[in-house]
Design brief:
The protein has helices spanning 2-5, 20-31, 80-87, 102-111, 137-140, 160-172, and strands at residues 12-16, 36-41, 46-48, 51-52, 56-64, 67-76, 94-98, 116-124, 127-134, 143-151, 154-156, 178-180. With 181 residues, the protein is α+β, with helices and mostly antiparallel strands.
Length: 181
Amino acid sequence: MKKRLKLPRLGQIGYVVTDVDKTMTYYRDTFGIGPWMLLDERPDPCIEDEKEIHPLLRIALAYVGPVQIELIQVVEGESLHLEHVSKSDGGVHHLGFMVQDLGKRLDACRKVGVGILQRGTIKDIGFTIDYAYLDTVDQAGVILEFIQWRLGSIPVPINRLTHSVVAWVGSKTLLKGRVIK
């Protein structure tokens, strides 16, 4: 799968949880993971199974070394995330890969027969995050995700440094982004 999709280095491990705040506190107190950036988001648009959906997601982001940890809670609405919670024992929901051109990556996926489970756009604290969950469970054992961060129309590489800057800006302004120590 890595060769077929020409995957970059792993950038994120995503978990779907029933309570982001509780899980974030546990990870911080038990493993020392933080600071966390906490966002309440309604991806717009968000397309799943070729129809538009409108979930409200609570998302927490932090880094462990070079890998971002993402916690996702569905607060309202329907989303494939809920299926994972009902069938899972808390395992990994997806592995994320940071990309610079999501459109080209998705075209390449279609050419090798990899479908898209969900695609969405999140806008917050001046950034746009475009993402796509790929239908890769049968081939890779887990959902793979492509993630592209942009500032305006300019792709921005997201990493621990960028995360720290965005989290700091979010904590110092009236924007929605919050930092939890």
